[in-house]
Amino acid sequence: MSIKSNKISIATKVIIITILATSIKPLITPNLLQPAYAQTQPQIRTVTPSLPEYCAPDKYKSFFENFVRGQDYQGKETRLTYTADTIEVREYENPSNLIEMLNKKDDEFSIDLRDYRWVQLVPSAVDNSPYTRLQIDLIRINNNTFRVNYIKAQYAYNSNRGGEEYLDYTYGEPGAYIFEHRNGCWNLTQKLR
Fold this sequence. Notes:
By secondary structure, this protein is α+β, with helices and mostly antiparallel strands. It has helices spanning 2-28, 35-40, 60-69; strands at residues 83-90, 98-103, 112-114, 117-120, 132-142, 145-158, 164-182, 185-192. Strands 2-1-8-7-6-5-4-3 form an eight-stranded mixed sheet, with helices on one face. The relative contact order is 0.14.
């Protein structure tokens, strides 16, 4: 009798193992297509466009120059691309006070470059120039934030030093822009006035 019970228990074990193996098989087989057919199917690739070099956190000065120009050296638009959807307008003297929120399409970024000089594209009240010169200070606040302080400025030339230009005085109200590193690049997020 011991021989018969042994045969029955072995047969029961084989049936149980067979049932388990057939229920696991679809989980183990990831591709149910025939190998030849699977090779002819197009492969789907997710291509992430590479960000410009000036998007790196330590290239904030280069980023700002491209942002001010409105496009980079490859002709890619920068201002609208790297401006947050909403810009917080805050007080210059007390940035914790929120004045208003602007849609990025409604913001008028006021700094430009003309002849390698920082300017605002408004006529100068000082020297009848078609634009107003600015003094700019870029300040790195932390790894993810930099601030651009600006104020109207008058420059003069030093005749003793070969006509070298120097800051004569500043005037008017100061302003600032805050840029934060988001989604792999710098973005204009706040305006202080």
